Automatic annotation (TrEMBL):
PANTHER family the UniProt entry points to: GLYCOSYL HYDROLASE 43 FAMILY MEMBER (PTHR22925), GLYCOSYL HYDROLASE FAMILY PROTEIN 43 (PTHR22925:SF3)
Secreted recorded as keyword: no
Family (UniProt): Belongs to the glycosyl hydrolase 43 family.
GO biological process terms held by the UniProt record: carbohydrate metabolic process
CDD domains per the UniProt record, alphabetical: CBM35_galactosidase-like, GH43_Pc3Gal43A-like
GO molecular function terms attached to this record: carbohydrate binding; hydrolase activity, hydrolyzing O-glycosyl compounds
Record-given protein name: Galactan 1,3-beta-galactosidase
Pfam families (alphabetical): CBM13-like, Glyco_hydro_43
Keywords: Glycosidase, Hydrolase, Signal
Amino acid sequence: MVTSIFISLLSAIVLAQAAVIVPGASWTDTAGNVIQAHGGGFSKVDSTYYWFGEDKVLDSTLFHAVSCYTSTDLETWTRQNDALTPISGTMISASNVVERPKVRTQTMTDLIPKNQNTEYVMWFHSDTSNYGAAMVGVATAKTPCGPYTYKGSWKPLGADSRDEGLFQDGTAYLLYASDNNQNFKISMLDTNYYNVTEEVSVLTAAILGDKLNISQVYYLIASHTSGWDPNPNKVFTASSLAGPWSSQVDIAPEDTNTYYSQNAYDMPLGTNAIYMGDRWDVSALGSSTYIWFPLSWSSGLPVIVEADVWSVDLAAGTYTIATGTTYEAESGTLGGSAELLTDSSYSGGKAVGFLGDGGTLTMNNIVGIGEAQWVSLYYANGDSTWRNTTLSVNGGANVVIQQPSSGGGHVIQSVPVKVNLKNGANVLTFSNGQANFAGDLDKIIVYTAT
Ligand SMILES: *[C@@H]1O[C@H](CO)[C@@H](O)[C@H](O)[C@H]1NC(C)=O
Ligand SMILES: *[C@@H]1O[C@H](CO)[C@@H](O)[C@H](O)[C@H]1NC(C)=O
Ligand SMILES: *[C@@H]1O[C@H](CO)[C@@H](O)[C@H](O)[C@H]1NC(C)=O
């Protein structure tokens, strides 16, 4: 499904120190509830960021609410009133689909004024439960979180529109998967942002995406169409929105399927940007997690910087990646049917496999600082389905950590877990008491940043 980007000049505001960003963890809001803002879009009004997304708390693809969260640091989020809720008898009833909401207005300080109405205009993918209608929906409000007044759903310029994004650069554009997902289109919006007026570009590729204008080059970051499953997201460049667009280039190692995510949005950060994706959990959509990574232009083209624990400095337009202490799995004690695996793709050339179903791994002398700490598990899961592992700290109750397909038996990815470590040496036991196989464990990294 998709991505989105808008051009912003981040204002130099001084921010309070906040929490870290941990991709793939379960994120909670300031009330302690799990953040329900999947397929999100972001807007900024003065110094406040607004995160609009799909509330999937019912674990259903059907429309429940477009949520609205606010933050001044991108790390601490407060839930506000719902921006859009179902209206029976319309295309946004609770038996239809509303996905990937995006809001634009002229009143956003970081956007070039265009809409003369001082109105907030929300665009979203509007569809029936079988995704057969393929429409856009539009709603408006006088305040950022609304609630929004629904204006209608239709096919832009008479053509399909499924996964979509908005791009604003003096003029606003709809970016959308069209023609039965066979083409990707860019169409210009009218000055009120109520409708599209003309097609600007058609990429004959089944992709979805959003775009960034940096140094007069447009970067279109897009996902292929693969339902809820992740795929290797790509970047295309052009000096004009009308193209010609370059051929596609990976933004992450291809095997990892963009670290098991799909791009939803990309937010400028200084001379770089933030990749904001969804790791959809099809078995429990409301448990899907957010995968945000720094997107670095240091090589000339945007590339995801894999970061377990990181933070942004919005005033400086920079990001900082936390460092931790690495412990190799092979330095632990193998129990039961666990086996040492050897391959050059593993850190130190070795990993521990056949965990679960009787195989266990015990790692001693894991140094903690007496706090709830982030620990990242680097694992390989070559299955297309998810695995999981149990973890017990110092003989305490097991927690279960999900391990999505890593993209191959020798492709390593990380998943985070927050556990209480005591000051000094701790004992971590993996995969005890589970009948199913866990991923092969390469190493763990213990962080102190919280
Ligand atoms: C949007 O424009 C199309 C023509 O492309 C038109 O058929 C449709 O009625 C318009 N929708 C609205 C809500 O104005
Ligand atoms: C893209 O951004 C540059 C500034 O970096 C600006 O001069 C140019 O007009 C923008 N392109 C369009 C089509 O707005
Ligand atoms: C762990 O994975 C197995 C499949 O390998 C699955 O049957 C089980 O439900 C999962 N447990 C949790 C808590 O997700």
